[in-house]
Write a structure and sequence with these properties.
The protein has 185 residues and is α+β, with helices and mostly antiparallel strands. It has two domains: 4-25 and 106-183, Topoisomerase I, Chain A, domain 4 (Orthogonal Bundle); 31-101, Gyrase A, domain 2, CATH 3.30.1360.40. The chain has four helices and six strands, in the order αββββαββαα.
């Protein structure tokens, strides 16, 4: 057994963490964060295009985003895409740019967002555990086919459990950090 045997499983677990981190970034915490726009696409000349590819996004103050399209004709398209998204913020269009004002979150809304990010984190943990299960199944088949010894199988099982625990711990740390950010007034 060498480290290459674990590489693909490690990479898949890292991708699960990255996916959860992206989900966390999309949850707005009452502060202006350009990451909330990452999932919104604009139908620009018949092609779904992320906003950051057709406009500059700036944050003039902590509770506001300023979106300035490079092509003035895209302004209405961006405005429409933001209104149709699940962002929950009404864009203010001044003819040259769009302002998004992020309101202060209520305590109730903060708790809802914490529940949401906990679901994301749990989904990430389930994905990591599924990857571990797939890996153990693979090593079990190799052992039955006499490609690896029973000792190698036990070592692999132990190593995979440690890997799983490490990545779940990393997810818990990300979750704690995001919860703290959401609950900060």
């Amino acid at each position: 057994m060498n480290k290459d045997d674990y590489k693909s499983y490690t990479d898949r677990m890292k991708k699960s963490i990255d996916s959860v981190a992206a989900d966390f970034a999309a949850v707005r915490a009452g502060r202006a964060n350009a990451a909330v726009l990452d999932r919104i696409t604009v139908d620009y000349y018949g092609t779904p295009t992320p906003i950051h590819q057709i406009a500059s996004i700036a944050s003039p103050d902590p509770r506001q985003l300023l979106i300035t399209p490079w092509d003035a004709s895209a302004l209405k398209l961006i405005n429409k895409a933001i209104q149709e998204s699940d962002l929950g913020i009404n864009p203010q269009n001044d003819g040259k740019s769009i302002r998004l004002a992020f309101p202060q979150l209520t305590e109730e809304r903060r708790k809802e967002l914490v529940k949401q990010i906990r679901k994301y984190a749990e989904g990430g943990k389930v994905a990591i555990r599924n990857i571990r299960r797939d890996a153990i199944d693979t090593f079990k088949k190799q052992q039955k086919a006499s490609e690896i010894t029973e000792d190698d199988y036990k070592i692999a099982e132990k190593d995979l459990q440690k890997l799983t625990d490490d990545y779940c711990k990393e997810l818990d740390e990300l979750l704690a950090k995001k919860e703290k950010e959401l609950m900060a007034v």
